[in-house]
Structure formats: C-alpha cells, structure tokens
Amino acid sequence: MGQKINRERNSRKRKNRVSVIYAVMLAVFAVFEIIIIKDHFNNDHESIAADSTVKEYKISGEEDDLLILVNADNPIPEDHIPELTELSNGQSVDSRIYPDLQKMFDDMREQGIYPVVGEGYRTAEAQQKAMDDKIEAFMHDGCSKKIAERLAAEQVAAVGTSEHQLGLAVDINADKTKSDNEEVYAWLAENAYKYGFILRYPANKVKITGYDYEPWHYRYVGKENAENIFSSGVCLEEYVENYEE
Question: Thinking of the domain 59-122+162-244, which architecture would CATH place it in?
C-alpha cells in the first residue's frame, strides 16, 4: 500500500515538473513573440517613414516654363499663347516640343513601331466640342443629361483646364496599318521620358490627378524634369509641389 502511495506521489511530482517546464517554455516563447512583433512593427514604421520623406527637386531653371500645371484647380494662364508647329497629319503642337517629338517618333519607327499624334493642341472651341461629344455619347447610351455631364467631366477637361490647350500635351496612338496601340503604349511607358515626355495620368495617381489612367496621353516637361519624374515615380502635381528653382 505504501509503495502504491509513493508511486502516486512520484507520478504527481513528475507531472508537476512537466507542467512547470511547459509553463516556462510558454513564457519564453511569449517573450520571443513579443520581441519579434515589436521588431516587425518598428521595421514597418521605419519603412513608412522613409517612404513619406518629401523630396525636393532642383534643376537648372531652363525648363521652368515647361512645368505649367493645368488641371481642374489650375486653369491655363490667360496670357498663355503657344507658338505652334503643324504636323504632317494636320495636328499642331507647341514648337518647343517638336524636335524631341520628331526624334522620339523616328526612333520608334526604326524599331518597327509606328505612332501617330491623335490629338495635339486644341483651341477652346475644340475643347468644348470634345466635352459636348462625350456628353452626347453618354446620353446616347441611355444616361440622363445630368449623369452624362458628370461622367463626361471625369474623362474630358472643362475648357481652360485641359493640357491640350497648352500645346504641350499629345495623345499618341498607333498607325493601325503597321502597329497596335498596346505596343505603342508599352514603348512609351519605358522610353518617353528620355525625350522629355511623361505619362501624365498614371493608373496609381488617379486620386491626385483627378483623371483615369490614360496610356496615350503624354505631356512634355523637358528631359531633365522628365528624368526626375520618371525615376521618382511621382506625377506632375507631386513634382511641382516639391520643386525648387
């Protein structure tokens, strides 16, 4: 009987020791987990802070006048009258962008890609027509005039707020007899900045630019500005905000 009691006591002692060891192990694991979580949080916090650093852009000053910001909140200056060069297809652009535009197109054609300027400079009348046509198209699809106007405003700039009225923006598409839009857009996305052009309305900047992604719409800002914008991954609004002469 005494031996049985001793065995039971020894068994309880072993169980108690196991329980204590298990509890200690749990405590150790808990401490390590807290340390790991804290370290992970700190790393994330540092990463967010690094990504939030404001960068100031400084260039020579020769391209300052190419950084005119035009959007819904920043209309075209009343005294802005571009000097235009007419292209072979009847479209026109600000004469300052023509040499780089021509060089870019020549290089694309040498690589078997054939672009065309679908839209260049627009007068105020032409811009209003573009808006009216878009409203009419939505109404034709069954929208009320009020809804059509709202939808059109998301895709077409109001008169005085369109980059096309600057003469510095071009819609570049493919010569459909020789190329397709996808290869033109892909080439431009990788190379246009080398010639001074930026993708004006990137897909990841819609909330800032106010416009949907337009892979055909390119804005001339000069080579130095374009390099800064492309390498930094910012849009024109962000660049102008952090720009210093």
Answer: 2-Layer Sandwich (3.30)
The kind and range of the H/E element at 184 are: helix 181-191
80 SS3 class: coil
DSSP string over 189-239: HHHGGGGTEEESS-GGGHHHHSS---TTEEEE--HHHHHHHHHHT--HHHH
* Cβ-proximal residues to 198 (8 Å cutoff; 6+ apart), any chain: 192, 218, 219, 221, 225, 226, 229, 230, 236
Sequence letter at residue 61: G
pTM of the model: 0.72
Please choose, from the candidates 69, 192, 170, 67, the residue with its C-alpha nearest in 3D space to the C-alpha of residue 122: 170
**Which phi and psi angles does 68 have, rounded to 5°?**
-60, 120
Residues with active-site annotation? 214
Per-residue tens of pLDDT for the chain, all 245 residues: 544 444 555 555 555 554 544 454 544 444 444 333 334 333 433 332 333 334 454 544 556 789 999 999 999 988 888 999 999 999 999 999 999 999 999 999 999 999 999 999 999 999 999 999 999 999 999 999 999 999 998 888 899 999 999 999 999 999 999 999 999 999 999 999 999 999 999 999 999 998 889 999 999 999 999 999 999 999 999 999 987 55
**Whole-Å CA distances, 140 to 128, 131, 149, 154, 181:** 18, 14, 12, 17, 26
Burial call 52-81: b when 16+ CB within 10 Å, e when fewer: eeeeebebeeebeebbbebbeeebbeeeee
Gyration radius from the chain CA atoms: 31
